[in-house]
Amino acid sequence: MLAWLILALFLSGLAFAAIHDVATMTIPNWVSIAFAVLFLPAALLVGADWASIGWHYLYGLIGLIVCIGLFSVGVFGGGDAKLLPAVLIWMGPGATLPYIYGIALSGGVLALVFILSRRLIPQTAIPGFLHRSVVEGPGVPYAVAIAFGAIWAAKSSVIVSQIIGLTGLAY
């Protein structure tokens, strides 16, 4: 039962961040904090040792340092720079490369979709909830790519795959 709750919180956090980013081009800080905090009970639930938990948090810290650098040169926004490493904590050492690959792949597709939509779709045809991200902003709601990258790499993540296993879901 607890595994279902943790999995639901993980997936709904990804979905919320992506939808909120599309609608407002922002990601609330509490979402990133929740990912970082919720990881500890999730890791303990699957029996991870303290060294493994420490490695996961270290990867998140390294990711945060890299993302702050990318934010400072304008590669992505502050919300993205906090969400990406918060989710990276869940991915850990074994899933870092698939996670980054999934983000890069989906981010490229997402950027192409937004570039084309901004050039080909009349502004009056854009629904209200997409107005901020499609019409106004030059940026891309990158939480969508971060969420896709996490789902892409979930099977490679020891912690996430074990939580999925505890639910009885085939993955």
UniProtKB/TrEMBL annotation:
The chain crosses the membrane at residues 27-46, 58-79, 99-121. Residues 1-17 form the signal peptide. The keyword Amino-acid biosynthesis does not apply. InterPro entries: Preflagellin_Peptidase (IPR052218), Prepilin_IV_endopep_pep (IPR000045). It is found in: Cell membrane. It is a multi-pass membrane protein. Residues 9-111 form the Prepilin type IV endopeptidase peptidase domain. Keywords: Cell membrane, Membrane, Signal, Transmembrane, Transmembrane helix. PANTHER family: PREFLAGELLIN PEPTIDASE. This is Prepilin peptidase.
